[in-house]
Structures are given as structure tokens and as C-alpha cells.
Amino acid sequence: MTVRVLVPSSLVREARDKREATRKLGYVARGATIFGARELLVFPDPAGERDARWGGGFVETVLRYAATPPALRKEVWGARDELEYAGVLPPLRASSRTGSGSDDSGSSRQGIVTEVGSDGRVRVNCGMQHPITLRVPPERVVAEGERVTVRIVSRHPVRARLVDEPSPAPTVERMNLETALADTSAGFRVATSRHGEPLTVSKLGSLVDRIRADGLTVAFGAPERGLAEILDISPPAGNEGGGGSTSGGFDLWLNAIPDQRSEVVRTEEAIIAVLACLTLQE
Fold first, then answer.
1. Is 51 strand, coil or helix?
2. How is 158-194 classified by DSSP, letter by letter?
3. pTM
4. Which residues, listed in sequence order, are joined to residue 160 by a DSSP beta bridge?
């Protein structure tokens, strides 16, 4: 099942300082990772950014840094102003979807292509003592700076190969909301909102069945700016779960916490609450 999480560029608009904003984004990345999200997409909210100290560039940079394996962060990012408080980010501890997350023979790990040769080989930094040279499979094209997955075949001597496996942490990109929803791989498209259809036990089964069959794209709002306000529309009333397309290009507007007892549910909290329900297995 493919899961994509969409968050707005105004995500940290209420943060008091850069440290708090960084920590919030770390928990957003961690929530997406816990539930195996394949992609974490940042969509623009220009109106929400106008009164914010940190916009989409900051949000994307911190999320991408958080999703980068710790052993590769220094080479990939160096020193950047946006990452001043990167030390407060909680570790993702992302594990491979194939279950091979150790450093032993047969394990998979993430690497960065540092050099592309003319002989079908590349140099890859994958957190080992030295970069390693690997042959590129004939059907693949690999670019310098690209993140790749490396399967360790032997540690002594070091032997490894490039494999076509997804990253254990979500990939982070900036993308227009309309583009993300129109993607053929979007699957079942859910907008989260306190004004949406209340989630109940009786409705959950049919939702999960469709999500497991089609995949899931789920979008979240920003502090004091829900998705309806960001899109400048009125949330549709009386959604029929799993029905046709509704307002804003979504298949369903969903209230996953219908009995919330706090006036505000933060985005990082909503991600946990929503994905915990919608990624359930039988």
C-alpha cells in the first residue's frame, strides 16, 4: 500500500522561534515515517506564508534533512542557516521495508552518488569508511547527487550492488496540491478537517479496504488555516465515504477525531491520529 502525506508550506506559521519550528517539522517527518509514507509533499499556501516567519523553503529543507540518513547528512547538506537547530530533530530510525536494516551482509542502506563514470560505474557514499564503486544495472540511469539503495553482499572484502528498493524514509518534494491530487498514483484522496465526515468504526472497514487496494493520499492543513481555508472553498457536507470526487479534488473530507476535546489538534498530532486509523490491517 502506497501512502503519500501532503502538508502546507505554512505548516510552522505559529512557531515562536526557529528551534520550535524545526522540532515541529521533525515530528511531522517522524509521523510520516512511522506509518511507512512513501512521499511527504509540501504544497504552497502563499496566503498562510505572508504572516509567517518561515515559509516553504524552510519547511522543505528541514523535512528533507530529517529524511536523510544520519551518516549522509554532512555530505549532502553541509552547513545551512535553515538547519541551525537540526540537533533538536527526533531520530526517524527508519527501517527498510524489506526488513534488512542492519549493517550486516545482506542488509540494505542508503547512499549518495558522488561520481558518475563513463564505464557504467558510479562512486557511492553509503556511510561506510570509504565511498564504494558500483556497477549500474543496464536498465538504470543514475545521476550525481542521487540517493540510491545499496545492498551489502559482503563486508570482508566489501562487495555491494545497487538495488531498486524504495527509501525507508519518505522522499520530500514541493508540489502543487492540484498536481499531487491529479497524479495517477494518488489513489484514494482524503482531506482532513474537523468539518469533514466523522470517522466511525462501521465506516472504517470500507475505507481501509479501498485504501489498501488503491493507495492513499492524505492532506493536512496548517495552524488556524484548515484545508478549506487554504483552498478558499466550503467543506462539503454529507460526504459519502468512498464516493466520487468532491470539493477540492478530494474523494473524501474526513474528521478522524470527531470527539476531540482540545480546541486545536496540531498537524503532527493529526498525522498520527489519521494514519493510525487508515493504515490498519486485518
1. coil
2. EEEEEE----SSPEEEE--HHHHHHSTT--EEEEEEE
3. 0.86
4. 152
